[in-house]
Structure prediction request, 318 residues.
Amino acid sequence: MAETIVEKEPQGSTARGVDLVNRWKPVTVFLGLSFVFALTVDLAALAFRDFSTAGAVLTWGTLRMWSVALAVLSSMKVLGEDVRQGVRRYLRLSSRALAFYVAAPLIVYATLGLYVALAAPLKFFNFDVYVELIVNQLSSSLAHPTQRVEDLARTLAYSQFFTAFLAAVTINAALALGEELGWRGYLYDKLDGRPSWSNCALIGLMWGLWHAPATLLYGYNYSVHRVLGGFLLFPLLCIFLSYPHMVLVTVSHSVLPAASLHGAVNALWSLTLIATNLPVEEREVYLGIGALGIVSWAILDSTLYMFFKLVAKRQKST
Prediction:
């Protein structure tokens, strides 16, 4: 009897171990490939050493973002998954998904408003600084600047709130989709597809650290505090940014709304770093990609969480 018991216990333990390996294998494969592919793009760009033009930066950024989608396809191939069915599931198009796709950028506008409410009293946000920046750009390009330059600059500054929305649902979403197929598509799906805080922490942390090589090599987002930004500030920010992305995927059953939200962040959030007189080293720590940005998105997350919890409670009671 004792011998039989000893034999059965390892079998059960082995089965649990196999289940654990099977569960985490796709996650491990995807994360490994996504980091390797992104680093390959970074090192290839480093070899060319040409970031002097907007076209070069756009090419690098596009390849880097879509390297995540390549990691998804490669992971599916390696693990013997149905690639076509998987991609079709993540890119599901429906009236519900389309409605959330159009509405998703409004989350960024709301969070920006919250950020301004926090930053303005601290004199960390001043929209006139942004207007003055445009005035200087216009004046340098005009042979004979006029008094109307400031009016034109202010119009251009405020029009960015409209053009940012257009960019979010068009070109920016197309670029961000390369990442979203991985972070809020494949990885989120393999982690059970629920917007839990544990999933938010893991996906956000990996998403943030995935940017770290670009930060260390090129000063991406953090030209001064590269280590602090790449390994602490940006991963923290990405953790809180992940929650609304995951919620959108959950309620729409598609990564498309997450892509337009991501696109809106890329189009609009840089304003938190431009509309200020703070020196660069302080902007990186305190403003939109630092402490105030993290706090703003944390408040947004808490609000969304309480809202959906209240909705679920009401639905349960009816």
